[in-house]
Amino acid sequence: MELADRVLKGDSRALARAISLVERDDAELPQLLSQLQPHTGHAYLVGITGPPGSGKSTLVDALIEVLRAREKTVGVIAVDPNSPFTGGAVLGDRVRMQRHALDPGVYVRSMGARGHLGGLAGASRQAARVLDAFGRDFILLETVGVGQSELEVSSLCDTTVLVLNPRQGDEIQALKAGILEIADVFVVNKADLPGVNSAVKQLQQTYSDEMKEGDWLPPIVETIASRGEGIDKLLDAVEAHRAHVKASGELEQKRRRHLREETLDFVAERARRRAEKALAKGTDIARRLAEAPLAELDPYRIAGDIMGADG
Predict the structure, then answer these.
(1) Secondary structure class of 136 (helix, strand, coil)
(2) What are 220's strand-pairing partners?
(3) What is the CA radius of gyration of the chain?
(4) What sign for the dihedral angle of Cα 80, 136, 220, 149?
């Protein structure tokens, strides 16, 4: 496939086209991904997640600058929320990161979440794989920022960075049951605001009593992303976690789990398409839904009929 060859040769236009194929789930996508797969595994995936208002986009922008200063190439997938009315995405992150637009070592792509509750677009996994094959050293995935539905990021990334700010200190206990457990690195951003010490202490109290010997102890890094302060320390913390999971063998185990999750996603998506095809106007099942008495319509039986039908 010519497109795959161009991606592997570092053609940025081919990269853009390949990710467009991913976003629209083009018929050519399986062949493209199969050709790119043997050339993946080099990039390190870092998820940037956290509640709205924590400053994730500014942090990602600052991280890009530090990574480039360390001569690392960067790919960014910034997932924006879609309007529930128009379906359109805000796609504002690319505008914020426009200052990197002329740097060939940086590629930024905004994607609409399209109602995907995990905080990442459904196409994010495949887009990350394309960027990996393209030769990026680091891939940063910034999530929508909708609280506990951000948990999916940990099933995709090698290191998950949870971003909070001092004003969200009161929310930490509420978050404990969900999103805090996925963090490999904590960031208290906007550390020039009052309450930073309290936020740090609350974070320490949420997990310190539950740690076991040999466990990774998530560091807490204070940053002021708008001024670029603390970003080097953040990247050092990410690198330390990378070294830990690589030495312990956890990195390979984690990536194998990610592959399993991706396989489940593919199966679920294929089943959904099969159902949509079976329920399309004019099919026997669609006519049954439209004409049969409601009391006779058993969704479990209908689903069984669909799954047992030829797809």
Answers:
(1) coil
(2) 186
(3) 21
(4) positive
Helix 284-291 × helix 299-308 angle, to 10°: 170
**Sheet order of strands, 44-49 included:** 106-112, 74-80, 138-142, 44-49, 159-164, 185-188, 220-222
The two most distant CA atoms of the chain are separated, in Å, by 67
Closest by CA position to 182, among listed 157, 198, 160:
160
What the block records as the tokens of 38 is 């043997």
Task: In whole angstroms, give the CA distance from residue 118 to residue 243.
Answer: 27
Contacts of 235 (CB under 8 A, 6+ apart): 63, 66, 67, 70
pLDDT tens, residue by residue, 137-192? 999 999 876 554 466 778 889 999 999 988 765 666 556 556 777 889 999 999 99
Closest-CA residue to 51 (of 144, 156, 176, 190): 144
Helix (H, G, I), strand (E, B) or coil at 223: coil
34: which DSSP letter? H
Burial pattern 231-250, b for ≥16 Cβ within 10 A else e, equals bbebbebbeebbebbeeeee
Q: What tens digit of pLDDT does each residue of 90-123 get?
A: 444 445 666 787 899 999 998 875 544 444 656 8
Question: Which residue do the tokens 């236009």 mark?
Answer: 13
Residue 18 identity (one-letter amino acid): A
Average pLDDT in the 282-292 region?
Answer: 91
In this structure, what DSSP letter does residue 311 have? Answer: -
Q: How many CB atoms lie within 10 A of CB 299?
A: 8
Q: Let me know: does 144 contact 83? Beta carbons within 8 Å.
A: no
How many Å apart are CA 252 and CA 152, to the nearest integer? Answer: 18
